[in-house]
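Section 5.1 Outputs to date
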Amino acid sequence: MPIIYKYYCNAGCHFLIKSHGLPFMCLKLDGREEILPHPIENSRAKKLTGKNLDELFKEGRIIFKPNRICLECLQREKNCKCERPKLLEISKLKGATCPKCRKGKILKSLAGVS
């Protein structure tokens, strides 16, 4: 079970994002990528393709993508609408200057278990 961390600004600007920090699983399907959410990766893949994860791995249709945030709009990559997104892996936020207020530093603490 993945551990969930929260990344937040120590300057009080209320910047906060939660992430497990691990890559997430995606399925290549008809020219797009479908996220296979934990813990139902196999059942979701089977529903979309009729095949289990083992078969899809062998076919090269399973990929892993890092959890990233756009430093321009402060949205996760999948929700970003920026023309030229400035993406950073969420796990690399720790110790960085806050992308929201540009004054504080980003701290990381345990938020829970998925």
